[in-house]
């Protein structure tokens, strides 16, 4: 087993290679579909049909945006969490989907990337819905571990023989420090997910938005101290900024 790390539009792409099959540890951005196709066919010299499994760890644009297109190209299957319903359901979900695409464009701008079309379906049509601790279909040396908090359906992917884990957005790096991501919809679930990772003690940890590190390089006590007590979400952030703006508006003296 070999893991290839590709530079994606705004995130790392992890392509797992075996002699007879390939797997993506996440569904990438829509803008990454050609990147993955070209790497498999030109760099690895393999047919795109060798891509047998595309995992979607959660529904954000840089983790699910390319999944349907890659399945159509390769004939592979999509696997995701068995969380009930769709993440972007209803009117609120529709608005949040638009907001998350806008945030992905904002991140791309910070990385000096050109704006690409990131539109993707807000409803995921998966082939497999994974219970926690389930092995990945066709890749039984990998295990899906539910790690919600960022959303209600995040999963981490653990390679059992090498004790190496991909945690997607469970942690992100800001100014050189690993911190909780934004948003955190479910703080208590997020805390439990961090405690699960700490107890698991994998040898190596792969992130969606920073370089792989050894478990010894992570200060869990420092990170646990940063876990929010209340949800950190789009709407709460907007409301907080609105309150700040109102507080600085000068009041007129009545004369």
Automatic annotation (TrEMBL):
Gene3D superfamilies: Ribonuclease Z/Hydroxyacylglutathione hydrolase-like. Residues 10-209 form the Metallo-beta-lactamase domain. Pfam families: Lactamase_B (PF00753). The keyword Nuclease does not apply. Keywords: Hydrolase. One of its GO terms (molecular function) is hydrolase activity. InterPro entries: Metallo-B-lactamas, NDM-1-like, RibonucZ/Hydroxyglut_hydro. The keyword Hydrolase applies. PANTHER family: ACYL-COENZYME A THIOESTERASE MBLAC2, METALLO-BETA-LACTAMASE DOMAIN-CONTAINING. Belongs to the metallo-beta-lactamase superfamily. Class-B beta-lactamase family. This is Zn-dependent hydrolase.
């Amino acid at each position: 087993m070999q893991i290839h790390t590709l530079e994606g539009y705004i995130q790392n792409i992890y392509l797992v290679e075996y002699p007879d099959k390939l797997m993506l540890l996440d569904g990438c951005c829509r803008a990454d579909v050609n990147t993955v196709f070209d790497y498999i066919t030109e760099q690895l010299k393999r047919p795109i049909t060798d891509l047998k499994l595309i995992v979607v760890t959660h529904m954000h644009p840089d983790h699910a945006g390319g999944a349907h297109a890659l399945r159509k190209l390769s004939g592979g299957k999509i696997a995701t969490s068995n969380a009930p319903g769709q993440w972007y359901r209803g009117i609120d979900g529709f608005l949040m989907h638009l907001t998350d695409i806008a945030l992905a464009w904002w991140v791309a701008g910070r990385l000096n990337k050109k704006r690409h079309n990131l539109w993707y379906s807000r409803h995921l049509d998966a082939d497999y819905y994974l219970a926690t601790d389930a092995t990945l279909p066709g890749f039984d040396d990998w295990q899906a571990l539910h790690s919600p908090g960022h959303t209600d359906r995040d999963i981490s992917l653990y390679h059992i023989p090498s004790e190496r884990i991909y945690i997607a957005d469970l942690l992100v790096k800001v100014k050189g420090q690993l911190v909780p991501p934004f948003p955190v919809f479910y703080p208590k679930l997020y805390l439990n997910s961090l405690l699960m990772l700490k107890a698991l003690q994998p040898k190596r940890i792969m992130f969606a938005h920073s370089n792989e590190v050894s478990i010894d390089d992570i200060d869990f006590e420092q990170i646990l101290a940063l876990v929010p007590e209340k949800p950190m979400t789009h709407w709460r952030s907007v409301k907080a900024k609105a309150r700040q703006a109102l507080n600085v508006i000068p009041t007129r003296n009545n004369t």
